[in-house]
Design a protein that fits this description.
Elements (H helix, E strand, L loop, with lengths): L16 H13 L34 H4 L7 H12 L18
């Protein structure tokens, strides 16, 4: 029996007031940016199929906070996705854009 996938956080999730207020400020400053909790890497098969856990501190200000995809748009993504591809844990080409076609 597989567990149901974890729900994604609400765009206005208030669980961390400091982060919520920080993001609200950036929504005013950069309204074209994503400025919300980013989707997880959780595969369609759910948590039971996960082989590797990748943890980040928080969405990178000009990375995931701008692009809406974890580790995309900053140096952490260049390093992470390059490593995942080199080790056979991801397929495709990372172009540092959420629409580059690289499946998570």
């Amino acid at each position: 029996m597989s567990a149901a996938p974890s729900p994604e956080p609400d765009r206005d999730c208030p669980l961390c007031p400091r982060l919520h207020d920080f993001i609200a400020g950036w929504r005013e400053r950069e309204p074209s940016w994503f400025n919300a909790p980013v989707p997880t890497f959780l595969p369609p098969a759910g948590e039971a199929s996960v082989r590797l856990l990748i943890v980040g501190l928080a969405p990178g200000l000009r990375g995931a906070n701008r692009t809406g995809r974890p580790f995309t748009g900053d140096y952490a993504g260049d390093l992470l996705y390059g490593t995942l591809i080199a080790q056979g844990l991801a397929r495709g080409e990372f172009k540092a854009r959420p629409d580059d076609g690289l499946p998570l």
